[in-house]
Specification:
- Helix 15 packs antiparallel against helix 16 (457-463) and helix 18 packs antiparallel against helix 19 (516-523).
- The protein is built from 21 helices and 25 strands.
- The protein starts with a strand and ends in a 14-residue tail after the last strand.
- The protein is globular, with a radius of gyration of 26 Å.
């Protein structure tokens, strides 16, 4: 594979000629290529397999881009007519080009932040995590907070002695970091683990009551274990925020900008051209707007505002933005969470957990508050997106949506984020109501080892991760990774979606797999639809934005086991190559460019 630029003869020496000679040479070059500079494309991809996700022309060999828009799709011979003296031509050499992949649910700044704190995602034991904190504490100043994310007790090789509910107590962590508060977020983001210094900083004692929608986990004696479930994590989070009050506004902004830069780099490297940011505050929207104004937002963002109903009532109307910054920032949706995650026993269930019979999970936000948010959003023509993982949470949200939909003809496209565990009676309601199940393929194969323990086999089979069944109801199923909960890698999520193969080689209810074509649509056109952007994104169609991902292998036809070795070769946003993979013949290959 290579890139070459079609230039007029002796381009490098043109300025040595007289003006008249320059004009003569330029006209000669244009005549040689058969078109004028005004008619020629700025970018052409040719000699490849281009899967458009457009039923009017499902597959092509080449496409042409003018400005930030696709102007033609067709055979290599047809597109050759669009090559002019200044056209950048990328010879795909048989590689696969697809519509720019869209992350359907993630946390943009969280992706960047994960690069700046302890990465606990690969830890195989609690002892390994304690060792990482020990090392960080030796380098930290006294009183400095140590943070990390990504631990998951179900992924450890063994359960530490003295654990409570499968999670260790804080004592070993407190011993290696007595003077530094430690807060380690669960991989799901729905629980945290704190050492004694962090709990002391937050004023948490054994007598502290559980906050609404959360739990301070205790042992049989009533002593705190350090595990903070759902909203309880916010008690320690508030203490950390207070400790950061000494930072200047410039320092805080620099930190946020670094997160945004790292997130963009990670997205582009993985072929992501658009990102649905699942819940930020108004101040973060202000930052994104500044970045868009500066031209420093290389990935297109579809942003969900997360706040309480009082603040939403005050501010929501003034924050509506569609296609701001040359289609790099859209704000027209709100996000609330009504329950937690399955891994942390926070998902809200109709029946008790199989492995914790005294619990049905947590209603993390009162249903009345979620309803108030939905009413405000509807009044201001904002989409509503509610996090619901458990079957009770999904039923409550579907009931709420149905009561507010009424007989309106409006195209609301309200979403349920995750929709992981649904009672069989509620599955058809997604299609009939037009509610979008905003799902993440990789969650099923990542969660499967403990789904059975949490739900039991009958509930797991009848209601867990029912992608194909939901698709057949007419629901628009979307895809993503929930990064940084999972790695942002769309290839891994695509693989999980089409195979349902677990790390041990077994398959998790393979009848719920999507086809290769369905899975690609879930990552492109369906995600665009879920953001009201199917007219400008999601397929390689003339008139749409030239957002394109080029892959090293044809993921639509190769064997299952080859999918995970597929690499992103190019990420193109608005006709500009934002990422190019290094190759053996390209020592100057780069990972990211603004």
């Amino acid at each position: 594979m290579f890139i070459f630029v079609c230039l007029g003869p002796q381009k490098a020496d043109l300025m040595k000629f007289s003006p008249s000679a320059f004009i003569t040479l330029t006209l000669s070059a244009l005549l040689f290529f058969g078109c004028s500079s005004d008619e020629s494309a700025d970018l052409v991809l040719t000699n490849g397999k281009i899967v458009t996700v457009d039923p009017s022309l499902p597959e092509a060999e080449a496409l042409a881009v003018k400005g930030d828009t696709i102007v033609a799709v067709g055979t290599a011979e047809e597109i050759a007519d669009h090559i002019g003296s200044q056209t950048l031509v990328i010879d795909l050499n048989g590689s696969l080009a697809v519509p720019g992949l869209i992350e359907g649910h993630g946390h943009f700044l969280g992706v960047g932040e994960a690069k700046m704190i302890l990465d606990l995602t690969t830890a195989k034991s609690w002892e390994e995590i304690v060792a990482m904190v020990d090392s960080a504490a030796t380098e930290a100043e006294q009183g400095e907070w140590i943070t990390g994310r990504g631990w998951h007790q179900e992924k450890w090789d063994s359960i530490p002695p003295g654990s409570v509910e499968g999670v260790p107590t804080h004592h070993t962590l407190s011993a290696v970091s007595p003077d530094n508060p430690v807060l380690l977020r669960h991989a799901s983001g729905h629980a945290g683990f704190a050492n004694k210094a962090a709990m002391d900083a937050a004023g948490i004692s054994p007598e502290t009551p559980n906050p609404d929608g959360g739990e301070l986990v205790r042992d049989l004696r009533g002593d705190l274990t350090g595990l903070l479930r759902e909203t309880a994590e916010g008690l320690v989070g508030a203490a950390r925020a207070k400790a950061r009050e000494g930072m200047t506004r410039e320092e805080l902004e620099k930190e946020l900008r670094t997160m945004a830069h790292l997130a963009a780099e990670e997205a582009l490297t993985n072929g992501i051209t658009s990102f649905h940011d699942a819940g930020v505050g108004f101040s973060t929207v202000d930052l994104f707007k500044e970045l868009a104004d500066e031209g420093n937002l290389p990935v297109r963002l579809y942003v969900m505002i997360r706040s309480n109903s009082t603040e939403l009532e005050e501010k929501l109307a003034s924050y509506r933005m569609i296609g701001y910054g040359n289609n790099h920032l859209t704000v027209r949706s709100v996000k609330r969470s009504i329950d937690g995650a399955l891994g942390s026993h926070g998902a809200w269930l109709l029946e008790p957990y199989a492995d914790m019979p005294n619990s049905r999970g947590l209603e993390t936000t009162a249903t009345d508050e979620v309803r108030a948010t939905a009413e405000i959003a509807k009044a201001h023509d904002f989409q509503v997106n509610v996090h619901a993982i458990g079957d009770r949470a999904n039923r409550v949200v579907l009931d709420l949506y149905e009561s507010l939909y009424g007989n309106t003809d409006n195209d609301l496209r309200w979403r349920i984020e995750h929709a992981q565990h649904i009672h069989p009676d509620d599955i058809p309601r997604f299609g009939s109501l037009g509610v979008i199940p905003s799902m993440q393929g990789v969650h099923a194969t990542s969660d499967a080892p403990w789904v059975f323990r949490r739900l039991g086999e009958e509930r797991a089979q009848s209601g867990a991760y029912r992608w194909q069944t939901l698709w057949q109801t007419g629901a628009v199923v979307t895809n993503g990774t929930d990064a940084p909960v999972e790695d942002i890698d769309p290839i891994a999520s695509y693989y999980s979606t089409v195979t349902r193969v677990l790390s041990d080689g077994s398959m998790f209810y393979p009848e719920e797999r999507l086809s290769r074509e369905q899975a690609l649509q879930s990552y492109t056109l369906n995600n665009a639809y879920a953001a009201f952007e199917e007219d400008i994104k999601g397929s390689l169609t003339p008139g749409k934005l030239a957002d394109i991902t080029v892959l090293s292998k044809d993921i639509l036809t190769i064997r299952d086991e080859e999918i995970l070795s597929t690499r992103v070769l190019y990420t193109i946003v608005g006709g500009v190559v934002k990422y190019q993979a290094q190759t053996s013949s390209d020592s100057d290959g780069h990972a990211y460019s603004e």
